[in-house]
Design goal:
This protein is an alpha+beta fold. The protein contains 19 helices and 19 strands. Strand 12 and strand 13 form a beta hairpin. It is flat. This is UvrABC system protein C. Keywords: Cytoplasm, DNA damage, DNA excision, DNA repair, Excision nuclease, SOS response. It is found in: Cytoplasm.
């Protein structure tokens, strides 16, 4: 906690109730955050009060504040303009800072007779032809990919005519997305005809392209070139299909931007859909550390449109915020005419905002190494168990033994809803003999967290604290492990997974009692799969130890063979069968073996064979 907190709060409480900009400095005097306020006293004093309601990013910023200064303005709008200017000038660490690295994009047409289409961010002096520049790399990338598919142009690394007839066509040929000049059966004339059609499509759009293709098809039919006419007809269908796909997104949508955000566990993603000419022409996403939810959208809009030369007439967003009027006024000045910011509740724009938010969630999930489906299951688990944060890192434990012998445990890890097998661990119960699942579970968790305290800052393996611990068992196991966590001062949510009389997952149990699970739901399937996985892992280790000990016991019954030689023989020959089939010379050559020991082993198995034959 900041040692100057009380001093800073005292200074903040003396601020005027006027609009203005506040500037936070660290010990070195460097500016680390700039913000605006309608009433400086109210806004700044919030930072130096209780930290419980602040996001992690805000707490980190406050811990680094050594002093602050402020500038009074005549209005909140003036404060916004000044804030924007100062952030652009100083780029403080704890403000949302977006980087505009999109640049311009080009359509590239390679040199040579068999030209290829591609998209690129840089124009080079390489003899190729370039079309552009275009503002949207998203639009160029999608347009080139669609053109190559529709007009069946190759996108592979093969060079033509050098590689014509030298290899079999790839999958794209079989799914009718490439005419496959590699087969050597495509004429250059036909290839260039499709290339020119693709360029016409890229330059003139789908409407003009369909018009010209229709004329070509009709001329081919009149000249009785029915095969060529059928080929053009198929191309027209593909162009129309692609055009219809765009219309699904573009129906009744005017020019404008759609913006939505999604936040979880200290991270926020904002997605931007940009519409021009009635269609989606650009899409961008930005991921950064979460700040304060109340001002985050306002701050994002400021940073985003500071980077943009052009501002649309309308912006649809997913939530209201306090400074909407000031932001709209600032954007209107930038645009030169009125800009409207709305939070649509119904209709096409509301659907687009929902789609934009869903894409923001997908992007954030992918950044964390999960799919939206897995992310949703973790959210459902968090809500069901009343957890404070998303359980991205889960450890699950199970005990396995046979009438108290070969008592072992398995630990599995799920990261972002998926098994993390590199983090799985096995435990041999050492503290006692016999069967006691409660004591076994307590021993395993004690050893696990003893290892944590040896390397608490590694943030991997045993050096990482889980977000959730799930035990295979009921109240008894939970109570035994709860004592361990309390004695080790470990604050991690703990629950048990309870099975029914048919050994199927039935409920989750904790200190507050059982929580029933509804079969058929994705969360039920997720927990059942996890419980099956930890059981498989633990029982697999148990079987492995039983097998080894069975092998060892049969070997150690032979005169001259102790634990060390038995282990060495198994390591060398791999199986008892291989040992029993080995001849005397092979046994003598095995590590740690003497002639007498080898002869004893040989006689043991060969005498057994003779007895069995009799």
């Amino acid at each position: 906690m900041n040692p100057k907190m009380s001093q800073l709060r005292k200074k903040a409480m003396a601020l005027p109730l006027l609009p203005g900009v506040y500037i936070m400095h660290d010990k070195s005097g460097k500016i680390i955050y700039i913000g605006k306020a309608k009433a400086l006293k109210n806004r700044v004093s919030q930072y130096f009060g209780s930290q419980n309601n602040h996001a992690e990013k805000v707490r980190r910023m406050v811990d680094n504040v050594d002093d602050f200064e402020y500038i009074i303005t005549d209005s909140e709008f003036e404060a916004l303009i000044l804030e924007c200017s100062l952030i652009k000038q100083h780029t403080p660490k704890y403000n949302i800072l977006l980087k505009d690295d999109k640049g311009y994009s080009y359509i590239r047409i390679s040199s040579g007779d068999w030209k290829k289409l591609s998209y690129t961010l840089q124009k080079k002096d390489d003899g190729a032809e370039y079309i552009g520049p275009y503002k949207s790399s998203y639009y160029v990338k999608n347009a080139v990919e669609e053109a190559n598919k529709i007009f069946m142009l190759p996108t592979c690394n093969r060079q033509f005519p050098r590689d014509c007839g030298k290899g079999r066509p790839c999958l794209n040929y079989h799914i009718k997305q490439c005419m496959a000049p590699c087969t050597g059966r495509v004429r250059l004339k036909d290839y260039n005809e499709n290339l020119n059609r693709a360029l016409e499509f890229l330059r003139g759009g789908s409407t003009n392209s369909i018009k010209k293709l229709t004329e070509e098809m009709e001329n081919a039919a009149e000249n009785l070139e029915f095969e060529r006419a059928a080929s053009i007809r198929d191309i027209i269908k593909s162009v129309r299909k692609m055009s219809d796909k765009q219309k699904v997104v573009a129906t009744k949508i005017d020019d404008g931007d759609v913006i939505a955000g999604f936040s979880d566990d200290g991270k926020t993603c904002y997605q931007v859909f940009r519409f021009e000419g009635g269609r989606l022409f650009d899409r961008e996403s930005f991921v950064f550390d979460s700040g304060e939810s109340e001002s985050e959208t306002e701050e994002f809009l400021l940073r985003y449109y500071t980077l943009r030369d052009s501002v649309p007439k309308s912006i649809a967003i997913d939530r209201e915020f306090d400074g909407m009027e000031e932001i709209a006024e600032w954007l209107s000045q930038k645009h030169g005419s009125k800009v409207g910011i709305t939070v649509p509740q119904r209709g096409d724009r509301a659907q687009l905002v929902a789609m934009c938010k869903s894409n923001a969630a997908e992007t954030l999930a992918q950044k964390k190494g999960a799919t939206v489906r897995e992310y949703n299951v973790l959210e459902e688990l968090r809500d069901l168990l009343g957890l404070k944060k998303l359980p991205e890192y889960i450890e699950s434990y199970d005990i396995s033994n046979l009438a108290g012998t070969e008592n072992v445990a398995g630990m599995i890890v799920y990261k972002n809803g998926k098994p993390l097998k590199s983090a799985y661990r096995k435990f041999k119960i050492k503290g006692f003999e016999g069967q006691d699942d409660y004591a076994s579970m307590a021993e395993v968790l004690t050893r696990r967290f003893d290892e944590y305290y040896k390397n608490p800052d590694e943030n991997e393996g045993f050096g990482k604290l889980p977000d959730l611990i799930l035990l295979d068992g009921g109240k008894g196991q939970v109570a035994a492990v709860k004592e361990v966590l309390q004695s080790k001062n470990i604050d991690v949510p703990l629950f048990g997974l309870v099975k029914d009389d048919k050994h199927r997952t039935r409920a989750v149990t904790g200190e507050g009692g059982e929580i029933a699970l509804s079969p058929g739901r994705s969360l039920f399937a997720f927990l059942a799969k996890m419980q099956d996985e930890v059981h498989r892992f633990a029982i697999g280790y148990h079987h492995s130890r039983r097998s080894k000990n069975t092998f060892k016991s049969s070997l150690t019954g032979i005169e001259g063979i102790g634990e060390v030689r038995a282990r060495s023989l198994l390591k060398y020959f791999r199986t008892i069968e291989n040992i029993s089939n080995a001849d005397l010379a092979e046994l003598e050559n095995a590590p740690k073996m003497t002639k007498d020991a080898a002869l004893a082993v040989y006689k043991y198995y060969h005498t057994q064979d003779e007895n069995e034959t009799e």
